[in-house]
Amino acid sequence: MSWFRRRPDVPADVTAGFCAAEAPAMQRSILAALGMGDRPAPARVPARLVVEHGADDRLVLVWRNVIVGFVPADAAPPLAAALAAAGDASLVVPGVAHRSDGTWRVWVGDVPDDGFPPVPDDLDTLPPPEQTILGVPVRRLDGR
Asked: Given CA atoms 134, 34, 64, 90 in this order, what sign does their dihedral have?
């Protein structure tokens, strides 16, 4: 057993492409993966995403060791089959982080020639995290 052995990459086919789910709830994670610091991020940032198993039957998208989104239910079956076939290898898909209506979103697949399609209404179900300062919710600081 090698402790620092990197798993081989297996590319997955996502020709249609899809928008990763739960972007509003994952904003902190996406910003951490962007790693821009104080510099403004470009409009589109290419991403190498790894598909991994999440809780229950969900599939998560990992970018730079940070979970940045979930695979929507309609796109999950082919990726789940590819992940099972990959075995110990990392299932890798191309992606792009981009801003849409003030929210960072992750597109999985090649960028469409005519731009990103609108985000489906039922894609995001998790609420955004509460604003905190050192773990204390901001709403408690004003006495409410």
From this structure: positive
